[in-house]
Every structure is written in structure tokens, then in C-alpha cells.
Amino acid sequence: MNSRTGIIVGAIALFFACALICGCTSTAPEQKVTELRIGYQPSTHQIAEMTALEKGWWAQDLEGFGVEKVTDFEFPTGAPEMQAMLAGELDIAYVGAAPVISALANGLDAKIIAAVQTQGSDLVLRNEIAYEVPGDLKGLKIATFPPGTIQDTLLRNWLIENGLDPVEDVTIIGMGPGDAITAITAGQVDGVFLPHPAPSIIKSEGNGRSVVTSGKMAPEHACCVLVASGTLIRDHPDLVTEIVRIHIKATDYNIANPDEAAEIFARKTGWDVELVRESLDEWDGTWISDPNVIVDSVVGYTDIQYELGYITTPLTRDEIFDLSFYETARG
Fold first, then answer.
1. Which whole-number Å values give the CA distances from 245 to 27, 36, 70, 87, 313, in the listed order?
2. Of 13, 47, 96, 156, which one's alpha carbon is 20 to 30 angstroms from that of 304?
3. E strand spans, 185-326
4. Tens of pLDDT along 12-63?
5. Cβ–Cβ under 8 Å, residues 119 and 214
């Protein structure tokens, strides 16, 4: 492990340790869940959460379980979202699978209970930068989500697979989607690796073009997942099953009604709806809910994060997933 990687690993551990300490100082868990607290990110990957909220399905379908209020909280990336979950501030989260692994390895009490989507991110370079093969990235400065996230994990592993050292050959800078879009627009970075709709936004503004999709880097790779806290799983299994049932309903609705899904996302985030539709036409992502489809991919992330030095031991399928709620919800 070189010194730069050591600094990254230390930062990840400290990031989650601080959240865990904060979580340990909170009061004892409630016996009844009267408010469901949901974490999400402003990405087209996670429109299922937004559809269920706008349609009133979270509130209506969970009312019979004693839930009186549903609140969602936006996060720029998975790292701060998992920090909030470690601190006991979220009951469920729509988040990338990779930051879940980093958080689990650092003490998070939670499990993945459903899949949300696969693929759906692009490597975008400024228009004046030539690109034909991965080796052309040597010496470039690329912004992506912070260490331990899906995009950071995929990008670093793909660079290694193509003979590049992600520490010595490419300068990778962690930041949220808004800051990354600003950075490539201002010419502060040569490229970005971001989830949709960011690649389409950059292209529409004439500030770059997609050169590699994440599906080319790792075909059918897992991306976002639905995570439930350990407290919710142990103390309220029927509620968790209903949450998965709502997620399945919202996912199926979005697949059947992509134009309306784009409108829901545009209303939630403020982005132009036609730009969102263009993004959904261009991306290589797929909305799904069955966690069985992504088990091998997610377990594979633990091996990658172990090789990168992000976690000290690879995690097993049983340490990451609880597939029972999906099976029960499907009935």
C-alpha cells in the first residue's frame, strides 16, 4: 500500500468511525416506527424512491403499520449517506452497493434488501481531449464520487485492469455530482465519471462527451440498492417486507411509464424534463428490484475494495444481503 492509498484508507475509516461514535451516543431505538426516514441521491438511478413518494405509496401503504410520517433526505453521494445511517439518522437508504460495503466493514448494522438498478454511469472527457484507449487517460485529472463509492471503486478497478495505476498514473478527485459538473465546465478537471443524468447534462451544455459507459467497464455491474437498518429488520420485519413491496411496485411502474418517471424526477430535482428523457434514452442502466440478480457483482465489490485497501477483510453474501424480504414480498 503506497502513502496516497494509505491516506485514502485512513480517511474512509475515520469518516465512518466518527459517524459510528455519534450513532452510539444516540438514545435507544423506538419500539414503534412512527416516522420512516429515507436517504436518497438526486440520480435517475433512484427514481423508484421519488415515484413512491409522489404517488403517496410510502405514506398510504405504511399507514397500517403505524407509520404516520415519511421523510426523505437528499445526499450528494453514498459516503455521507452511509455516514448518516451509521449515526442512526436513516431507517432505509437508496444508495450504491459499494459504499454499503465500506460502511458494513466499519460497523454499520444493516442489510441490502432489494436491488434498485444496474450500470448507468459514464466516463466523460472534455471535448478537446482525444481518447481511443484507456491508456490515453494517463496523466489526466478525473473527478468522481469519493473513495469507497460505486464510481470510485469501478473506475480504479477498470484502470488497474487496463494497466494503469489509479494512484500514480491518473489523478482521481472525489466530489459530488454538482461540484464535478462545475469542475469540468470550468476546465479544472479533464474528465468526470458520474451517474446519470450528469453525463447528459455535461453533453447538452457542450462541455464534454461520453467515452466509456460503466457497462463497458463491468458488464451488468450492480449499482444502487435498497438498504434497511438492522433495527428495522429485527424489530419490524413485516414493515420491511411492505417497504420492499412498495419498492417493487414503484420500480415496475417506472419501467412501464418511463416518460412519467422522467417527469417525476424533473419535478423532484428541478432539471429540465426533456434533458432527463434524453438521459434515460442514452444511459445503459436498467431499473430492477430482484437482489438475487446482483449478489455476485456486489460480493465481487468486496474483493475489489479489499485489493484497493479500503476494507481489511472481504465480506460474504450473508454479511451483506437479507434476501428473505424480497422473496416474501413477491409471495
1. 30, 15, 16, 26, 33
2. 47
3. 191-195, 209-213, 224-229, 286-287
4. 555 555 555 444 444 454 568 999 999 999 999 999 999 999 999 999 999 9
5. yes
Beta pairing partners, 173 = 143
- How far is the C-alpha of 80 from the C-alpha of 57, rounded, in Å? 26
Encoded amino acid at 126, one letter: R
> Under DSSP, is residue 58 helix (H, G, I), strand (E, B) or coil?
helix
Cα–Cα distance between 79 and 95 in angstroms, integer? 9
- Assigned C-alpha cell, 115: 436491488
Residue 193: HSE in the Cβ half-sphere, 13 Å Cα cutoff: 31
Residues ≥6 apart with Cβ < 8 Å to 201? 181, 271, 275, 279
pTM here? Answer: 0.89
Q: What is the length of the chain?
A: 331
**Strands 117-118, 171-174: pairing kind:** unpaired
